[in-house]
Design goal:
This is LysR substrate-binding domain-containing protein. InterPro entries: LysR-type_TF_proteobact-type (IPR058163), LysR_HTH_N (IPR000847), LysR_subst-bd (IPR005119), WH-like_DNA-bd_sf (IPR036388), WH_DNA-bd_sf (IPR036390). Keywords: DNA-binding, Transcription, Transcription regulation. The protein has 310 residues and is an alpha/beta fold. It folds into two domains: 83 residues, Orthogonal Bundle (Arc Repressor Mutant, subunit A), CATH 1.10.10; 221 residues, D-Maltodextrin-Binding Protein, domain 2 (3-Layer(aba) Sandwich), CATH 3.40.190.290. Helices cover 40% and strands 26% of the residues. It has eleven helices and 14 strands. Strands 3, 4, 5, 6, 7, 8, 11, 12, 13 and 14 form a ten-stranded mixed sheet that branches. Strands 1-2 form a two-stranded antiparallel ribbon. Helix 1 packs across helix 2 and helix 1 crosses helix 4. The protein is elongated, with a radius of gyration of 24 Å. The protein starts with a helix and ends in a 14-residue tail after the last helix. The C terminus is likely disordered.
């Protein structure tokens, strides 16, 4: 039985605290993973795991072995990647997860370029906004908006999401057009709230180079960007939304920019992946492609093309 296979099986069981989940992530039968860990313990002549009917935990010897095993596996993968990178294209299954609006409007429309460049990658994309356990769900990396909250993940900045204040022409005709940020207190506002934290995101405008939260008459809060855009189109109120989500509606005249002379807030776009894993060639390739895409994407630029008065 290959030593590195047994080492990989053991580290995955430790990380997921489950033989079943480890087997699923390695695409192996559970009996195979169990046999590999038993063989490893037999060869080392130490007990690496505490096993009960409810949970699996690592022993003191197992924890020490895990730390060294992870380093060795990472070094092995890095060495193999360096040797093969010059002569082979990235290949294999790559599973990523991206926010639904960003995937629908920016990433997926550009995917033909990625698939042509890297024909040996089998790409699986989840479009979701929920928190994801990358190890447990077998996800290689995720693209997320905002500042990372999970310290167990490595974050690489791949872009910036700019925001605009918008409203429908019908709403502005009925309630008037605000000309100063203080005017927003007299208008109906539709806000975003996070399903993860429950926190409502206030409107943000820049003043003297600093972002400031603006008081508003909060009419409605919604936890989905597409639904907020729908609320704006329905004339419910003023919304602060990502530029890329409303550019088409601005061009068509279905929405209009509000307070266009005031710079609006922004949030970072990050690629996240587990910190205890070596960054594989295929993951690095996707992250670099996404960063290039975001840098060139007109929908993500801070000064979008507008066909209406702001």
């Amino acid at each position: 039985m290959d030593r590195f296979d047994t080492m990989l099986a053991f580290t995955r069981v430790v990380e997921l605290e489950s033989f079943t989940k480890a087997a699923m992530s390695l695409n192996l039968p559970k009996t195979t993973v169990s046999a590999q860990v038993l063989a490893l313990e037999k060869r080392l002549r130490v007990k690496l795991l505490h096993r009960t009917t409810r949970r699996i935990s690592v022993t003191t010897d197992g924890a020490a072995y895990y730390e060294r095993a992870i380093r060795l596996l990472n070094e092995l993968e890095e060495t193999e990647a360096a040797l093969h990178q010059a002569t082979s294209n990235p290949k294999g299954r790559l599973r990523v997860d991206v926010p639904t609006p960003l995937g629908r409007l920016v990433i997926i429309p550009a995917l033909q370029d990625f698939l042509k460049r890297y024909p040996e990658i089998q790409l699986e994309i989840g479009c979701d906004d929920r928190p994801i356990d990358l190890l447990e769900e077998g996800v290689d990396c995720v693209i997320r908006v905002g500042h990372p909250l999970d310290s167990t993940l490595v974050a690489r900045r791949v872009g910036t999401m700019q925001f605009l204040l918008v409203a429908s022409p019908e709403y502005l005709q009925t309630y008037g057009r605000p000309t100063h940020h203080d005017d927003l207190q007299r208008h109906q506002a539709v806000h975003f709230f996070s399903s993860k934290t429950g926190k409502v995101r206030n409107f943000v405008l820049e003043h003297s180079g600093e972002e400031q939260e603006i008081p508003t008459n909060r009419k409605l809060a919604i936890n989905n960007g597409d639904a907020i855009v729908a609320a704006a189109l329905a004339g419910i109120g003023v919304c602060q939304v990502p530029t890329f989500m409303v550019q088409g509606y601005l061009n068509e005249g279905k929405l209009e920019r509000v307070l266009g002379d005031y710079p609006t807030g922004s949030l970072p776009l990050n690629a996240l992946y587990p910190q205890n894993r070596h960054l594989s060639t295929k993951v690095r390739t996707f992250i670099e492609w996404v960063a290039e895409l975001f840098a060139e994407c007109r929908l993500l630029q801070s000064q979008p093309k507008l066909n209406n008065n702001s």
